[in-house]
Design a protein that fits this description.
The complex is a heterodimer of chains A (190) and B (173). Chain A is built from 7 helices and 6 strands. Chain A has 190 residues and is α+β, with helices and mostly antiparallel strands. In chain A, 33% of the residues are buried. Helices cover 64% and strands 0% of the residues of chain B. Classes of the chains: A alpha+beta (190), B mainly alpha (173).
Chain lengths: 190, 173
């Protein structure tokens, strides 16, 4: 009796091990909660934008007819969050953002870009899976007390991030005017 | 029987009867003619009369455990774990519940465009700053040639863009 039980438990255990990778794939792996930053800075953001999966799907579906490539890029983004704070105490703001960046590094995020100028700190952190960039966090602190924090997450093509880092022009397709031109007719039709 | 007896020849019938009698004798355990068969029969009888030897304690314990009723809880535990696993995988692999995809308003399009523009501009600004620092770090140190002998030969051997040679009047050899 002992031997069959061992076999059964081994089977369950092995099945569990085999399925762990599937269970471990979290679509929100690159999501970074910006709320603690707002709390730490003790200020209301001047700009606070938050687009989740449904809205990103909506954007993608709207542009798919005119620009399938752009739709694919937007579709690969599961969520986007942006906060812009202004008129903060620069010393306090920099201390809080540095603390957040240290925490990010401890959570498996990798610094892709770190710039320390006297008038600005720019940090770009990425978290990756085997095939995709699961998320990026951009944190900018500027001398006059401005803090920009953004998080983009999803299953983002690393080539997009590579173009962004190497050329700085990867977001050409996200040009405001062209996007608006593409969205507005559809919105007018509805 | 009579029919079959009548159908066999007399000699065959006699041989059949003799074989039958011998077989009945063997089966009935009476006056066995074959000594080997008799010895085997006696050995079997002796062995059957012997009391069985007790099993070793460990073997007996193992057998008793195997023969005792099977505890149900490990099986139930394994089955529930397996069911939970299957359920989790099914839920994960099942297509998401169809939701109504919202149609963005022009304001939302503007907001998305603004967000992406802010992210792009600051990333590019960071890259520009990083490149500027990199260029500064890669600047070649300026050499003061006045007291370096054979400077023209040294410079010609150095990789990189040609650097204008200093005035030969300054050489001190």
């Amino acid at each position: 009796m002992k031997y069959p039980m061992f076999k059964l438990s081994s089977f369950v255990f092995i099945s569990w091990l085999c399925c762990l990778p599937a269970l471990a794939q979290d679509p929100n792996a690159g999501r970074f909660d910006l709320a603690p930053i707002q709390t730490a800075l003790a200020a209301a953001p001047k700009v606070n934008l938050n687009f989740g999966p449904a809205m990103m799907s909506g954007f993608a579906e709207t542009v798919r007819g005119q620009n399938p490539e752009l739709a694919g890029i937007i579709e690969s983004i599961r969520g986007l969050r942006l906060m812009v704070f202004e008129a903060l105490d620069p010393v306090h703001a920099r201390a809080q953002t540095d603390s957040m960046l240290t925490a990010l590094g401890g959570e498996g995020w990798t610094a892709a870009l770190e710039v320390r100028d006297e008038d600005a700190h720019v940090d770009l952190y990425l978290i990756e899976s085997d095939r995709f960039v699961d998320g990026l966090v951009l944190m900018v602190t500027e001398g006059e007390g401005t803090v920009v924090v953004a998080n983009v997450y999803g299953a983002i093509d690393p080539a997009l991030i590579g173009r962004l880092i190497s050329q700085g022009g990867a977001l050409d397709g996200f040009d405001l005017e062209s996007l608006t031109r593409q969205f507005v007719p559809a919105a007018d039709d509805s | 029987m009579n029919g079959s007896r009548n159908m066999l020849p007399e000699s065959e019938q006699r041989r059949f009867d003799a074989d039958l009698e011998a077989e009945l004798r063997v089966c009935s355990d009476r006056s066995l003619d074959d000594p080997a068969l008799l010895a085997d029969r006696l050995l079997r009888r002796e062995l059957a009369a012997m009391a069985p030897a007790p099993l070793p304690a460990r073997l007996r314990h193992r057998l008793m455990r195997r023969l005792s009723p099977r505890p149900v809880w490990p099986l139930a535990l394994a089955a529930s774990a397996l069911a939970a696993l299957v359920l989790a995988l099914t839920l994960r692999s099942s297509p998401p519940t169809p939701t109504l995809t919202p149609t963005p308003t022009p304001d939302e399009v503007q907001q998305l465009g603004y967000a992406l523009a802010v992210i792009g501009e600051h990333t590019q600004d960071g890259i520009r700053r990083a490149l500027r620092h990199g260029e500064n770090a890669l600047d070649r140190p300026l050499l003061e040639p006045a007291n370096l002998p054979y400077l023209d030969l040294i410079r010609s051997a150095l990789p990189g863009p040609a650097v204008p040679l200093p005035n030969p009047q300054e050489y001190t050899r």
